[in-house]
Amino acid sequence: MNRYVFYHYLIVCFSNLMILVPYHLMAERFDGSVMAIFLSPIFGVIMLYLFTAGLSKFPNQGLPEILSHFYPRWLVGAVVTYKALIVGMSSTLVIASYAIVITRFLNPEGNPYVILTILMLVCAFGATRSTVTVNFVLEIVVILCIPAIAFIMYKTINNPFLKWDAVQIVLNHYDRMPSLLAFASATFVFTGFLNLGLFNRILPPNFRFKYRWTFPLIAFVVQFITFFVPIGIHGTEGVANYVYVWSATADSARMIFGFIERMLFIFLIVLINLSLAFTMVGWHMVIEYIRTLFPNNKVDPDEPKPPRRSYWIVAVLVVLTLIFMYLTNELNVIYIGGIFLIIRMISEIVITLWVYALSKKKVRKYEKKISV
């Protein structure tokens, strides 16, 4: 079961390519992004250990069940609704960004709303399945994508156009203090553990979080490559000319003896799998969080048939995503994405510390009961 925790960490780790994290880091590459990248693993390790230590005291329970032990229903409902909004916004940004990327690089004459609708229908079907089923689908997607991601990173690092002098120039600005946006962008890659706020329901009661130290280490390596490789290929100034910088970076690599010459096509295939999996998991979490607001809701991580209310919730998510796509453009998405990253980081800190504090409160309550 420990591998499923790893999959949730990886899907968020790899999805930072689609949620404009590289763009915000590149924008401040001379003004604090380097220090933010080197400080972010410390933040990631602390948050990971606190959150998993807190969840270990509440086996088979998600965030709504944990809060319901200590607080009235109205407060639990407010927190769960806020959590659903945060998760839903991240999924919307990912799927909308990918619809723009696939329209621009694969089918410039295509209708982005049609492409987005097709992607969302696939995500909606997966999101309405049971929690156990969503976990299994996530495992399949991550296992299929890891070799391709490793190959893409290998090809880009060995790109003859990569100039390490440009990387060194940016590294020389390591002493610049990061802005709040740069630090929030750098820490996003370490936040996959927050999915356990729902998926802790399917972990066995005697589950122990093992090899936690490997999670931030892998995330840091991915973050380092994600940031510095595009700088080495496009240059310290040229890298700022791209919104989705990794699409252009992948397109700079070639497979001379491959049946597909352009690495971009492999990159986009990997992205579609990651974006669908990320959105499916995010929307499933939103569905489960919203369902807890209904009276007499039954928590069943392996329910054989989705209830009708799940379809209504995901239909609202599809409509809201289409409205978001219609009302915004790329510049607005960048601005909204920056605000979202800051709000998300603050929310992560609050929820992590909250769950950890509640776990200590439960232990004290249990010890008090035993002493009596």
Automatic annotation (TrEMBL):
Regions annotated as coiled coil: none
Top-level division of the source organism's lineage: Bacteria
Transmembrane annotation, as ranges: 7-26, 32-53, 74-101, 113-129, 136-157, 177-199, 211-233, 264-290, 311-328, 334-358
Keywords, comma-separated and alphabetical: Membrane, Transmembrane, Transmembrane helix
Keyword flag Cytoplasm: no
Keyword Membrane: yes
Name of the molecule in the record: GerAB/ArcD/ProY family transporter
